[in-house]
Amino acid sequence: MANSSTEKTRRMVVLSILTALVVVLQLVASNILIGTFPLTLTLVPVVIGSALCGPKAGAWLGSVFGVVVLIMCVIGVDAGGSVLWNANPFLTALICIGKGALAGFCAGLAYKAVAKKNSLGGVITAAVVSPVVNTGTFIIGLTVLFNPILVSWAGDAGSDVITYILVVLVGVNFLLELTINLVLSTVIERIINYRVRRLA
Length: 200
Known about the structure:
Blueprint: H1 2-29, E1 33-34, E2 37-38, H2 43-53, H3 55-75, H4 79-87, H5 89-115, H6 119-145, H7 147-156, H8 161-183, H9 185-199
Antiparallel strand pairs: 1-2
Helix pairs in contact: 1-2, 1-3, 2-3, 2-5, 2-6, 2-9, 3-4, 3-5, 4-5, 5-6, 6-8, 6-9, 7-8
């Protein structure tokens, strides 16, 4: 019983630290713009949390990330998100929070599935899945729920919608997020292994 209580306390401490890190990193990243959208550095602690504490914890951290993104949209720091907020606040909140929660949850599932055989493989898989789901969900949400705005942005950039999605939304933002996650994968694995050894 004591071990169970201690583990719950440790889990709460880890989640609290990672939650604070998500908020700080997203606030810092909101100043690094790629086109009209800020770079996402926050997926690293989301991946760490989903691997250490499971898919539900990943979904929590992803949701926190989404809430911070939403606040940036509301106050106008995220210019692209602000346009979406002014068009439809509910759908903007749904996309912002939904994509983050889904990215964290899926990263946790991916880690769980692969880490049984290979810890580093589990981390790399989670590190890939997280930005894929985050960006993919955003693009799907934008295409389905805000298509006229997407078409307008593509027109302003002098391209068609497909090219705009591939070059601006996927080509730059996604590749940077994916690269950051992959570069930090070995660091993430060390953090996870350190915690596992301490609990052993």
